[in-house]
Design goal:
Its EC number is 3.1.2.2. It is a peripheral membrane protein. This protein has 2 domains: about 90 residues, no CATH class; about 120 residues, Thiol Ester Dehydrase, Chain A (Roll). The protein is α+β, with helices and mostly antiparallel strands. The protein contains 4 helices and 6 strands. Helix 3 crosses helix 4. Bound molecules: ligand 3VV.
Length: about 220
């Protein structure tokens, strides 16, 4: 796994986020509008033309591949393309987990773009959000970055589109493994439960200091 560093501090991170995040929000709104619009075919075609124009302008300068996860000089990660949390990713709902005393929580609104069964959230989207949350929980809660080894989701009942809350907690550790339990609930109670085995990859061994600093910066962020 490659580490890429950028010699920037918090003010520059803030500036970059505030420059791009409104665009991400507009694109998120666009995705929702395309799903729900009832305008006629001519209006749809006109919209497509204008959007193709904008895409061509954005592509005049672009990175190859994904955005990656560059780190600042203070070891704050910038996972801005992340599918669940990315500030540049309109597909991300976005999830904004907060970890305090080993417990990670988040609230998120899942609209039309996250539909599976009619009026309800797609199970894969719930798994995505839980995967991210248990990842951040294991990493911040144990002060070491962990990857998901096994993720088991039990869908208790359908989750209505709308606002949901997520919670995860490290329940134990064993060598390089951390065990995390969590859940998603809506206003009527729990809709999905998760059990995860999170693993600190062998390849991180011997880099404990930098890994701990990354986990600490992630928790603080
Ligand atoms: C630029 C670098 C940045 C890094 C730092 C970032 C820090 C930021 C902080 C916080 C951000 C949090 C971001 C969360 C993101 C969301 C979470 C994800 O989506 S993660 C992606 C999905 N997951 C994968 O892609 C894993 C793919 N699999 C692997 O990489 C390996 O298989 C891995 C690491 C899971 C295990 O590989 P081994 O070589 O280290 O482990 P072995 O030595 O074989 O096993 C160790 C122990 O673990 C068990 N184990 C191995 N694999 C297991 C598995 N899949 N499930 C359960 N147990 C497993 C084994 O049985 C063994 O247990 P026994 O010691 O014998 O008791």
């Amino acid at each position: 796994m490659d580490f890429r560093f950028e010699d920037i501090g918090p003010a520059e991170v803030k500036r970059r986020i505030s420059a791009v995040e409104p665009l991400t929000e507009s694109v998120r709104d666009l995705v929702d509008a395309v799903i729900r619009t009832e305008v006629d075919d001519t209006a749809l075609d006109d919209a497509r033309r204008q959007i193709d124009d904008i895409v061509a302008r954005l592509r005049t300068e672009e990175k190859p591949g994904g955005f990656g996860v560059p780190f600042t000089r203070d070891l704050v990660g910038m996972p801005w393309g992340n599918a669940a949390t990315g500030v540049r990713n309109a597909i991300a709902p976005p999830l904004r987990p907060v970890t305090h005393a080993g417990v990670s929580t988040a609230e998120v609104t899942l609209g039309a773009a996250y539909e599976g069964p009619g009026g309800h959230v797609h199970g894969g989207v719930l798994a995505l959000l839980l995967d991210q949350l248990v990842g951040e929980c294991a990493s911040s809660g144990t002060s070491m970055p962990h990857f998901t080894g096994t993720l088991t989701v039990r869908y208790v009942r359908p989750t209505k589109l709308g606002q949901v809350s997520l919670r995860a907690e490290v329940t134990g550790t064993q060598d390089r493994k951390a065990f995390v339990s969590g859940e998603i609930h809506d206003s009527e109670g729990v809709t999905a439960e998760v059990e995860a085995i999170m693993i600190r990859p062998k390849e991180f061994a011997g880099r404990d200091e930098v890994m701990a600093a990354i986990a600490e910066a992630t928790a603080r962020d």
